[in-house]
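Postdoc handover notes: sequence design on the structure in folder B. Input tokens:
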């Protein structure tokens, strides 16, 4: 606040008004400059506030985009690691399964000769369509028939060079990826049920090999 003029003594109203007008006219230009300066300062302050606000918004957006990129990269790395772990587990499972087949094939008894009475003659149709006919001792466990089917490729290869002595894979729990089925009437010979080949199949029979799908295994485990 500034003093424009001082009016002392007795004055008439018209003189008082005239003196005020004169003082205002004399100080109008400085007042206008002050008002203009204040308006400019206010405009500059408002502009800075707008710029600061825009900068903060832009900075927040940059931070959010950076966060999203970090999360996307972390998710991508997790997916790659999980995929690599799954692949390694699948490869290890396949290696253990092949090692188990070689180990199990070593202990499979030879096919009974003609001197073995009551031998059970089994015709097995493999998933490939190939039919294999083999005899089993009547007291052989049904698991031996499962093992023969599982190790058939190893046994075939062994006819040329023999079976290399192989230890049982450590920490590996083998599960047969198929079931043996008699087509007519349909009968499933579950390996878990046990029993001898003679008890389960009789004097002989035709057997189909049915692969077990992954979703079936998951249902059984649940």
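Designed sequence:
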């Amino acid at each position: 606040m500034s003093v424009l003029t001082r009016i002392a003594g007795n004055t008439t109203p018209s003189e008082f008004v005239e003196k005020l007008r004169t003082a205002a006219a004399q100080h109008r230009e400085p007042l206008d400059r002050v008002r203009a300066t204040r308006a400019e300062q206010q405009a500059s302050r408002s502009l800075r506030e707008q710029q600061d606000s825009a900068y903060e918004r832009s900075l927040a957006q940059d931070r959010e985009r950076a966060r999203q990129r970090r999360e996307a990269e972390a998710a991508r790395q997790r997916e790659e690691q999980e995929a690599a772990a799954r692949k390694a587990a699948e490869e290890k499972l396949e290696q253990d399964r092949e090692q188990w087949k070689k180990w199990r094939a070593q202990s499979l008894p030879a096919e009974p000769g003609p001197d073995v009475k009551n031998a059970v003659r089994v015709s097995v149709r493999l998933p490939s369509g190939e039919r294999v006919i083999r005899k089993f001792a009547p007291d052989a466990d049904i698991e031996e028939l499962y093992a023969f089917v599982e190790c058939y490729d190893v046994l075939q290869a062994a006819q040329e060079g023999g079976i290399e002595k192989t230890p049982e894979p450590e920490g590996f729990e083998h599960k047969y990826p198929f079931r043996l089925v008699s087509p007519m009437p349909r009968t499933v010979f579950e390996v878990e049920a046990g029993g001898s080949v003679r008890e389960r199949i009789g004097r002989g029979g035709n057997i189909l090999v049915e692969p077990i799908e992954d979703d079936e295994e998951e249902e059984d485990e649940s």
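Context for whoever picks this up: The helical segments are 13-106, 142-150, 152-161, 197-201, 214-221. Don't rerun without checking with the PI first.
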